[in-house]
Amino acid sequence: MGESEGSILNSPTMEKIGDSVYASIFKGHGLYGIMGAVVVAVLVPLVLSVILVGKKKVKQRAVPVQISGEAGLAMRNARSSKLVDVPWEGATTMAALFEQSCKKHSRERFLGTRKLIIRDFVTASDGRKFEKLHLGEYQWETYGQVFDRACNFASGLVKLGHDVDTRVAIFSETRAEWLIAFQGCFRQNISVVTIYASLGEDALIHSLNETQVSTLICDSKQLKKLAAVCSSLKTIKNVIYFEDDDTGSDLNSSKNMSTWTVTPFSEVLKLGKGSAVHPNLPIKKDIAVVMYTSGSTGLPKGVMITHGNLVATAAAVMTVIPKLGSNDVYLAYLPLAHVFELAAESVMLAAGCAIGYGSALTLTDTSNKIMKGTKGDASALEPTLMAAVPAILDRVRDGVSKKVEEKGGFVKKLFSIGYKRRLAAIEGSWLGAWGLERLLWDVVVFKKIRSVLGGKIRFMLCGGAPLSGDTQRFINICMGAPIGQGYGLTETCAGAAFTEWDDPSVGRVGPPLPCCNIKLVSWEEGGYTTSDKPNPRGEVVVGGFSVTAGYFNNEAKTNEVYKVDEKGMRWFYTGDIGQFHPDGCLEIIDRKKDIVKLQHGEYVSLGKVEAALMTSNYVDNIMVYADPFHNYCVALVVPIHQVLEKWAKEGGIKYTDFPDLCDKAEAVKEVQQSLLKVAKPAKLEKFEIPAKIKLVPDAWTPESGLVTAALKLKREQLKAKFKDELRNMYA
């Protein structure tokens, strides 16, 4: 199918996660045994809670800090009195961090990859072909072996003829070779341009030409895409490709690249191994990465990330995850071209963790590309740490909830009791966290759910977009592990705020990371000020070691959103609106660009409304649109196929295919009623609730260009594609 890791939202992939959870969850437990366990599990902590529960003391997680420059309320992490910039003395660059960590952990497992055993294709009833894979166990390279390969790659690059004064681009899905090539470039102080594997042709051409890349590193699947645009790429001289089992078929494309030197990755390693080149190492302020954001508007912008930015974020996050070290195993499957995954893997490198590579389409035993009877990546790896974007966690929650609903009866009641008991334990109203009750609920209900992700997850990182409080709590309970919700941008090298492991609250992004300060600046026009009660509010501005150097070849835009105060601290104006809680934790509540003023003067926060309406059982994705010349808003809704089709079947609605069903007035009315139901508890105003909606049958994916690789809406592209539908809703 050739789908990229950006295709995380493909419905069949993520909905099947829930399918494996309850298929066997209640097997092996006698009914009376379960009921007896439940009675003991509930009564013992209940009695203890009456005796022992006291008032919880609020932990202060951030404290005010005096700042210079523009007025605002600033906070820093309460853990340290000064900002953290390195994980340990001497690790001031990614090259130094990599070398020192590899030497320290030389014999420990580092990078793991699954071997392809069988590739097959199955044909669906509608004639479409789907790729199925039988994958083996993980095969590992040690830190010492990876360091040697990175050094060989660096030497091979030079021997191949790469000019060390020019940039290298990596245009590939996430894999071990990506990280090896990345670190190899730093051995010669070569800046790396990172490009999403799902990026469209125009954006690809723009990114490579703007940065004048001379060597392009890609996986073999990207050769066809490069062949199609090679005449438009002005500076490319070398192409290095990662070999796969079926690389031969993709190599035919390279015939169109006659002016380029096309070399397999393994040959570059051999070239370097046979003729070592002395390293040319970077310094802290050198540009490590030019990272092209997929951008919600126009062509992508290249953010210049220094070595100092990368190591500062890694150092800060290491202080947040408890007991991080060589016993941990991290499952890597998100795009490395996205700052969230790159920062996460940099943390794992610094801590000496093992990193096992997978993909969104092979993640679980029931994922789209996994052959029946084959383990998914999570089952094979049994990770202790994992990163996810909210869209994935929403899918997990929906899948589990759907299975519980389908089982009904005693199963549904038992899950409900277990869930409520664990919720009460986390929120501190009962002593459900006590070992006996926790153990019993794990055995009876939650153990099978956790097995979907390998059964050993102890901490999850979530970022890339806001995570709803309901989903955060659901995953927290079902997986039995804290979720650290992070907040950051490419412009802050992913480092801004991060939820601490012992914080049971939801909906917040935690205190500032120890590498930066965060201040709120009043935005009078939008009605957000630092004097607001009960919590101060304003635009979120990040300052410190994680704030990047600006946009490549775009000084005007850089000067617009980056400022340096009189003490030399660099600040980035995010455009997000946040509020500080009394304990110093930050909550993101709005975004300046998403606010539209209606005809009668009311402000509509599109992102806030969308987040609320996404909780409808019918909604797969939604874009709210507000025309300032009208007094109401409208919405484009991508419905969840199975849910809407089930409703239609039960209601006797006749239709020919899913697009036909989406056009039915009855279906539109049903979905709109569901939006009204979720809008009420979310306390949306009448003018915030879409007065009209249009059901869109096709999912929005990064490949379609309608969402970013981080799965955020591309509003301008959506408005352009559906301009007629939006116009008709206002007619």
UniProtKB/TrEMBL annotation:
Keywords: Membrane, Phenylpropanoid metabolism, Transmembrane, Transmembrane helix. It comes from the Eukaryota. Pathway: Phytoalexin biosynthesis; 3,4',5-trihydroxystilbene biosynthesis; 3,4',5-trihydroxystilbene from trans-4-coumarate: step 1/2. GO terms for molecular function: long-chain fatty acid-CoA ligase activity. Residues 133-552 form the AMP-dependent synthetase/ligase domain. The chain crosses the membrane at residues 31-53. GO terms for cellular component: endoplasmic reticulum; membrane. GO terms for biological process: phenylpropanoid metabolic process. This is Long chain acyl-CoA synthetase. It comes from Actinidia chinensis var. chinensis (Chinese soft-hair kiwi). The lineage of its organism: Eukaryota, Viridiplantae, Streptophyta, Embryophyta, Tracheophyta.
